[in-house]
Amino acid sequence: MNRPEGNRFIFGSIRTCNYSTGKHCVFYHRYHLVWSTKYRFKVLQGPLRLRVRDICRQVCAQNGVDIIKGVLSSDHVHMFVSVPPKLAISDLMRLLKGRSSFKIQQEFPQIKKRYWGRHFWCRGYFSTTNGAITEDIVLQYLEDHIDNPTDASR
Questions:
Q1: Is 19 a catalytic residue?
Q2: Three-class SS of residue 45?
Q3: Looking at 44-96, which runs of residues are DSSP E strands?
Q4: pTM for the full predicted model
Q5: What span, in angstroms and rounded, lies between the C-alpha atoms of 105 and 127?
Q6: Which positions ≥6 away from 82 have C-beta within 8 Å?
Q7: C-alpha R_g of the chain
């Protein structure tokens, strides 16, 4: 519950979030990412599926991305991830799709027959954010901040 304290609001729910920290920042960036195989061919099965999972885990670990939940279907991948602010989502997707496509086509030569042109994944992807604080709370905070600025912002 929000309770006023002087000119500020104290948000009780903030303490329950698991914030991540960088050298000079505290963040809570959660993204739901989805991408599919080219032509939606159902090829993510067996050892190929396990290898795609391992490659995605490696790329995320190398870039400081925490995988909260991940699901591989037979023709697409869902990932719910926490991404540091220094990494753009487009760069993360480029790394995930590019590295996995390259390694899969190297390690599984039977895929080359189906995916000629070295494109294993479709061109686009879906991403959406998820946060603990709603847009209404942020807008309310900004409106209150305009009326009662702190010492640092005057």
A1: no
A2: coil
A3: 66-72, 76-82
A4: 0.75
A5: 25
A6: 20, 28, 29, 30, 31, 65, 66, 68
A7: 21
28-145: which CATH topology? Answer: Alpha-Beta Plaits (3.30.70)
Instruction: Give domain limits for the chain.
Output: 28-145
**Integer Cα distance of 89 and 56 in angstroms:** 14
Residue with tokens 């190297």: 106
Which are the contacts of 119, defined by CB distance < 8 A and separation ≥ 6?
Answer: 38, 101
Task: Convert the pLDDT of each residue in 83-123 to its tens digit.
Answer: 999 999 999 999 999 999 999 999 999 888 888 778 999 99
Determine contact, residues 2/10, Cβ cutoff 8 Å.
yes
pLDDT at 4 over 50: no
- Tell me if residue 77 falls in helix, strand or coil: strand
Structure tokens at 19: 């914030």
Cα(92)–Cα(87) distance, rounded to whole angstroms? 7
